[in-house]
Specification:
Elements lengths: L9 E8 L9 H9 L8 E6 L6 H5 L1 E9 L9 E5 L15 H13 L6 E7 L12 H20 L9
Parallel strand pairs: 1-2, 1-3, 3-5
Antiparallel strand pairs: 4-5
Length: about 170
């Protein structure tokens, strides 16, 4: 990713995280793909995969960030969780997903440098199965509409999309 000047910050970014060959671990990537053609062009989408600290520049240069991911939240499989602001884990000894620790470090370092997003929302889904495979389990496939509704609700709150449009 090219260096972005602070003046050229991304107003709204959506970051999909996950490993798309580990079934439900790839839910963030699946969600991102579902959104790709339905959002205004000024919203920047990034498939972050399991990139970890390489995502720092994108995070630092985004004013409002939505993160889509599989999360270990102690919920039943397929349950959608939404974390905002201070509820977003920035550094933890508990792994929330296969790549979570490195993303937590991204948030930590962005904050340490005083370059965190003004607003951050994590929309996560509790995984059912992290075995090898490229398809989500049926349980998580049924969670996709609710997770997408949470994204749209957040964008509506930020006055980006009209409720009637999505």
């Amino acid at each position: 990713m090219n260096k972005v000047n602070r003046e050229d910050q991304i107003e709204i970014g959506i970051l999909g995280l996950g490993n798309s060959i580990r079934q439900d671990e790839g839910v963030g990537i699946h969600l991102l793909e579902r959104l790709r053609n339905d959002l205004p062009s000024e919203i920047v989408l990034l498939d972050g995969g399991t990139d970890g600290l390489r995502l720092l520049e994108f995070v630092e240069n985004t004013k409002r960030l939505i993160v889509l991911d599989a999360v270990e939240a102690g919920k039943k499989p397929g349950e959608v969780v939404v974390w905002r602001g201070d509820d977003v884990p920035k550094y933890t000894s508990n792994k929330l997903s296969v790549h979570q620790m490195s993303f937590a470090e991204v948030l930590y370092w962005a904050g340490f440098q005083g370059r965190s997003p003004n607003e951050i929302v994590v929309i996560g889904v509790q995984p059912e199965n992290l075995d090898w495979g490229t398809e989500l389990t049926e349980t998580l496939q049924r969670s996709i509409p609710e997770a997408l509704n949470q994204v749209n609700a957040c964008l509506e709150e930020w006055s980006v999309m009209k409720a009637a449009g999505h």
